[in-house]
């Protein structure tokens, strides 16, 4: 089920080793659960700032209408993948105890992908059991972007897509056929 | 018996013109008379129908046409070419007098005839029908009726030019009177007034009393002349009135008086704003037109023209004028009304005159304050403030708010406007309206903030050019406000937080319309010039920021540690903007103070020999010559970084200094900003020495020529460590001084710079030699601190990324939403503090750059 590019793995493992250690040192775990909203806000704000300033191409997200816990995201298919030239909208909703819990990420645009179901739910380990507070919006989006090009076909949510993955040419046609860009 | 009596009366009036026509007339009127008598006697049973006979027919035939004929020659008297002809004037006057006299006589004569007739009828009736009840009617009725008939006859046959004739007559007479009185008024106005009062009471008596109690005989004579003049006019007016021309006459002399008054006001006020003219205008009103009217009204018995002078009409001015003449009783009501009318007219005229020239008046404001005072008093009287606002705003738009006017001039005018209008309107209501266009315009100018800050801070430096002078006034203002605060303990508007402002706003009550501005101090808001200027910029933060940049620039270019004037300015600014906002500036000044101390400490360590001291001496530079400004860069505006290789010995000196600093101030380390500061250097060419104060880059350039006389630009740039284009720009300094010469190299892009031979350039640059040139910061490109614009641009790139981010995810957004979203989420370091307008202009910039698209008020990312 876990499918990630090497880059991101390096990135996350580096951070994962650092960040939890410091937070654990600062605060015992039980109190960390009831972390005040203010610090969540701060964290999300700084993530937004980092995301805006990073200038990664193909990924973007922004809080929706006054609510910083609810973001809209945009991912474009990477070059040299079957998803090239497509653009997908996502929603990210952050729990109040973020970053101790992962945000809920869903595709809003229908995507024909082995690890995404018809409702847009994504099967990605870092959004479930492998979540770490070292991840942020930017790494989540990058992970999803790379997931598009490198699906985990062994445990698919969309078996049809998983079956078709072998035939990249047909798959590309399928993606184009099912792609409905948002307005 | 009746016939005899009649003929005797007839003879009396007609004796002096017993020529042929007169006799014919007499005969004719006699016939008419006989005929009427006949008619009356025949209709004896009915006396009320008696007056139906038509004396007016005779009158019309005989007199009216003849009267009007007199003026036929002057039908074009109103034509401008004739107006100035005094001969014509005199003639008109004479003809008018004569004609009036004649027609009045005619009328009197007819009235007498009529009364005789009535008498005759009466006695006839008395004798025949004694005790008849209607007897009184017959007697009282015919005369007023006759008068009515006469005036209507004259009115219906009134030539159109007659009012003109009257107007010119009165104008001529008044001018005559005015010139006579003007001389008199100047020296003996007091005595005059007293005499006038005598005249007012009893014009005939005035003759005798004057003879007794007057000291000088000169104005006695002129007075008599004036009196005669007034009397002549009085006769004319009286005759005209008796003919039923009351309102016509009044119109004529009123318009003549107003015309004269207007001319007088224009004459007095003119183009001179340095003196107050209101008093002299008022004095003139007292001396000339009022005196004339007083005499005239007194002559006429002062009862005819003013139908309803109700007592309620007595304005404060009435009581005031009566207070002026104690012992003489109050002047007649009519006169008071005249005075009010005249003064109002004078005020209005002067006000219009001043308002039309308000722009000029404000341009030389401090000198023109008498004119402003005049205007203020006029406006208090007339209440036509809106006229002022409209006129001034259009003048501003036309003359000041144009591309040709420099920002400094506009600001200067703005400050003058504030000061001047503050005098006129302490509540600042009209100032608000007038200032609005200026503020709006200034907001559109890029250099506004810079100019304002320059004005604020450069006041004491005494610059010979414009900004310096402007600064003086602003700093004065700051100082004065400071003093005011000491005395009143009033809280400064800018300083109060929003909550306090809200409370104040809720407490506010409008001044009643008729409120006396003098008493309105309770409501009077403080018109704070600084506050209004900050209002142009929008927020004090921007101003403080700009000031910080300027201060940094100034401090970095200081060669000594003397910051007294800066401290003073800062203290003043602190009063207005609060300690907190000026904190960074204070730290900057403290850095300078600390630098001075550290510098001394570091130099104290020189006594201990350093390992490379000998080498340093070799080049003639030692630590003694080095003064460092140590800044806490966190609190300074971003410093312009520029790579620069400074000459080896100097570089060593710097690191030596840094080492010593490190020893004293462990654990702190000194990091040099090598491109900043100033270098005093001396160039020796054989027999000649030249001193310069230059930027480090200039010094580095010229030092390279110490060992090598000629450099190509590329090599030199490498040696100094700056880009070639920068070098080419900077080296111009030395070329302009005649120290270096520029010639094209092999490659067209490559220049060769050669040290000019000392012998050759001796004559050329003789002027410059020996003088200490201070050229630091003479080019805009040489600023040591990132300008506010640069900072703004940097901030805006952050916003651009945010905007791109939100548009990527939301597709399209309206301006408002972008603004609100930025406000909500862009809270980190340069937090979003722009106005909607600023954002809009920024967005339209992005549209021009084709990064965004604007359709139907929505912004899109350009794909």
TrEMBL record, chain A:
Domain of life: Eukaryota
Record EC number: 2.3.2.23
Region: Disordered, residue numbers: 1-34
Any single Pfam family the record assigns to this protein: UQ_con
Keyword Lyase: no
A single GO molecular function term of this UniProt record: ubiquitin conjugating enzyme activity
InterPro entries listed in its UniProt record: Ub_conjugating_enzyme, UBC, UBQ-conjugating_AS, UBQ-conjugating_enzyme/RWD
Residue ranges, compositional bias (Polar residues): 1-25
Domain UBC core: 39-183
Keywords on record: ATP-binding, Nucleotide-binding, Transferase, Ubl conjugation pathway
UniProt similarity note: Belongs to the ubiquitin-conjugating enzyme family.
Name of the protein in question: E2 ubiquitin-conjugating enzyme
TrEMBL record, chain B:
Pfam families: ANAPC2, Cullin_AB, TPR_ANAPC2
InterPro entries documented for this protein: ANAPC2 (IPR044554), ANAPC2_C (IPR014786), Cullin-like_AB (IPR059120), Cullin_homology (IPR016158), Cullin_homology_sf (IPR036317), TPR_ANAPC2 (IPR057975), WH-like_DNA-bd_sf (IPR036388), WH_DNA-bd_sf (IPR036390)
Keywords: Cell cycle, Cell division, Mitosis, Ubl conjugation pathway
PROSITE patterns, per the entry: CULLIN_2 (PS50069)
Superkingdom to which the source organism belongs: Eukaryota
BP GO annotations: cell division; metaphase/anaphase transition of mitotic cell cycle; protein K11-linked ubiquitination; ubiquitin-dependent protein catabolic process
Ranges of residues in domain Cullin family profile: 532-735
A single GO molecular function term of this UniProt record: ubiquitin protein ligase binding
GO cellular component terms, A-Z: anaphase-promoting complex
Family named by the database record: Belongs to the cullin family.
PANTHER family according to UniProt: ANAPHASE-PROMOTING COMPLEX SUBUNIT 2
Protein's recorded name: Anaphase-promoting complex subunit 2
């Amino acid at each position: 089920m876990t499918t990630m590019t090497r880059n991101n793995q390096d990135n996350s493992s580096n951070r994962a080793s650092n960040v939890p250690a410091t937070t654990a040192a600062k605060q015992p775990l039980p109190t960390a659960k009831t972390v005040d909203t203010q610090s969540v806000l701060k964290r999300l704000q700084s993530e937004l700032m980092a995301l805006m300033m990073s200038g990664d191409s193909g990924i973007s997200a922004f809080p929706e209408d006054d609510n910083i816990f609810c973001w809209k995201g945009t991912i474009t298919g990477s070059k040299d993948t079957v998803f090239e030239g497509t653009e997908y909208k996502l929603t990210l909703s952050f729990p109040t105890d973020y970053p101790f819990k992962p945000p809920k990420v869903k595709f809003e645009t229908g995507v024909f992908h082995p690890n995404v179901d018809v409702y847009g739910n994504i099967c990605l380990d870092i959004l479930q059991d492998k979540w770490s507070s070292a991840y942020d919006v930017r790494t989540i989006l990058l992970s999803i972007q790379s997931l598009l090009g490198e699906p985990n076909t062994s445990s698919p949510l969309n078996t049809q897509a998983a079956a078709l993955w072998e035939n990249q040419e047909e798959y590309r046609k399928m993606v184009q056929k099912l792609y409905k860009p948002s307005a | 018996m009746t016939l005899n009596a009649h003929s005797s009366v007839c003879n009396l009036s007609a004796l002096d013109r017993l020529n042929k026509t007169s006799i014919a007339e007499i005969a004719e009127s006699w016939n008419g008379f006989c005929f009427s008598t006949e008619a009356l006697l025949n209709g004896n049973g009915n006396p009320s129908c008696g007056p139906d006979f038509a004396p007016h027919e005779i009158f019309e035939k005989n007199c009216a046409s003849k009267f009007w004929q007199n003026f036929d020659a002057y039908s074009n008297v109103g034509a401008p070419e004739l107006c100035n002809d005094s001969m014509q004037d005199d003639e008109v006057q004479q003809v008018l007098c004569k004609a009036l006299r004649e027609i009045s006589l005619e009328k009197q004569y007819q009235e007498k005839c009529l009364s005789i007739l009535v008498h005759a009828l009466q006695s006839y009736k008395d004798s025949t029908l004694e005790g008849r009840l209607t007897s009184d009617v017959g007697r009282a009725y015919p005369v007023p009726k006759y008068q009515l008939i006469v005036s209507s006859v004259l009115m219906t046959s009134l030539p159109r030019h007659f009012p003109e004739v009257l107007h010119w007559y009165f104008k001529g007479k008044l001018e005559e009177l005015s010139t006579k009185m003007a001389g008199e008024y100047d020296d003996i106005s007091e005595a005059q007034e007293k005499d006038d009062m005598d005249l007012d009471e009893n014009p005939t008596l005035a003759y005798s009393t004057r003879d007794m109690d007057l000291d000088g005989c000169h104005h006695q004579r002129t007075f008599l002349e004036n009196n005669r003049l007034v009397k002549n006019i009085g006769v004319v007016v009286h005759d005209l009135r008796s003919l039923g021309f009351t309102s016509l006459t009044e119109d004529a002399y009123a318009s003549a008086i107003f015309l004269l008054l207007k001319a007088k006001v224009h004459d007095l006020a003119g183009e001179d704003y340095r003196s107050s003219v209101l008093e002299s205008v008022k004095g003139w009103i007292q001396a000339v037109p009022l005196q004339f009217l007083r005499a005239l009204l007194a002559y006429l018995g002062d009862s005819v023209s003013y139908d309803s002078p109700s007592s309620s009409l007595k304005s404060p001015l009435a009581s005031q004028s009566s207070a002026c003449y104690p012992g003489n009783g109050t002047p007649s009501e009519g006169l008071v009304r005249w005075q009010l009318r005249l003064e109002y007219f004078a005020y209005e005229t002067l006000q219009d005159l001043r308002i039309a020239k308000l722009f000029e008046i404000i341009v030389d404001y401090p000198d023109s304050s008498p004119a402003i005072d005049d205007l203020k008093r006029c406006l208090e009287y007339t209440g036509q403030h809106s006229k002022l606002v409209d006129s001034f705003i259009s003048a501003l738009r036309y003359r000041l708010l144009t591309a040709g006017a420099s920002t400094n001039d506009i600001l200067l005018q703005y400050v003058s406007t504030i000061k001047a209008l503050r005098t006129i309107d302490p509540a600042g209501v009209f100032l608000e309206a007038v200032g609005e266009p200026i503020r709006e315009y200034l907001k559109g100018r890029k250099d506004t903030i810079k100019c304002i800050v320059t004005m604020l801070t450069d006041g004491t430096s005494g610059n010979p050019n414009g900004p310096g002078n402007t600064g003086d006034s602003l700093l004065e203002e700051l100082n004065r406000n400071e003093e005011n605060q000491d005395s009143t303990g009033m809280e400064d508007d800018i300083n109060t937080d929003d909550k306090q402002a809200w409370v104040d706003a809720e407490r506010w009550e409008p001044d009643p319309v008729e409120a006396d501005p003098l008493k309105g101090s309770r409501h009077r808001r403080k018109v704070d010039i600084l506050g209004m200027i900050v209002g142009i910029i929008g927020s004090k933060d921007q101003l403080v920021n700009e000031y910080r940049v300027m201060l940094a620039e100034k401090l970095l270019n200081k060669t000594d540690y003397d910051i007294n004037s800066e401290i003073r300015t800062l203290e003043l600014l602190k009063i207005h903007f609060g300690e907190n906002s000026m904190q960074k500036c204070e730290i900057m000044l403290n850095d300078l103070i600390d630098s001075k101390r550290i510098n001394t400490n570091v130099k104290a360590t020189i006594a201990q020999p350093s390992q490379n001291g000998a080498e340093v001496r070799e080049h003639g530079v030692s630590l003694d010559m080095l003064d460092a400004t140590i800044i806490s860069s966190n609190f300074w505006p971003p410093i312009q970084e520029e790579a620069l290789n400074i000459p080896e010995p100097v570089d060593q000196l710097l690191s030596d200094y840094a080492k010593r600093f490190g020893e004293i101030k462990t654990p702190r380390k000194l990091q040099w900003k090598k491109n900043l500061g100033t270098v005093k250097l001396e160039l020796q060419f054989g027999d000649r020495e030249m001193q310069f104060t230059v930027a480090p880059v200039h010094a580095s350039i010229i030092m390279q020529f110490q060992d090598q006389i000629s450099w190509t630009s590329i090599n030199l740039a490498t040696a100094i460590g700056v880009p070639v284009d920068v070098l080419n720009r900077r080296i111009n300094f030395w070329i302009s001084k005649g120290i270096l010469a520029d010639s094209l190299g092999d490659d067209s892009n490559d220049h060769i710079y050669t040290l000019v031979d000392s012998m050759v350039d001796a004559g050329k640059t003789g002027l410059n030699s020996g003088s200490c040139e201070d050229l630091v910061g003479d080019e805009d490109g040489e600023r040591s601190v990132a300008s506010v614009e640069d900072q703004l641009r940097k901030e805006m790139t952050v916003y651009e990324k945010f905007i791109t981010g939100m548009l990527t995810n939301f597709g399209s957004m309206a301006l408002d939403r972008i603004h609100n979203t930025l406000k909500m989420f862009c809270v980190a370091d340069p937090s979003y503090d722009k106005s909607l307008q600023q954002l809009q202009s920024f967005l339209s910039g992005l549209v021009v750059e084709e990064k965004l698209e604007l359709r139907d008020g929505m912004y899109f990312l350009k794909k």
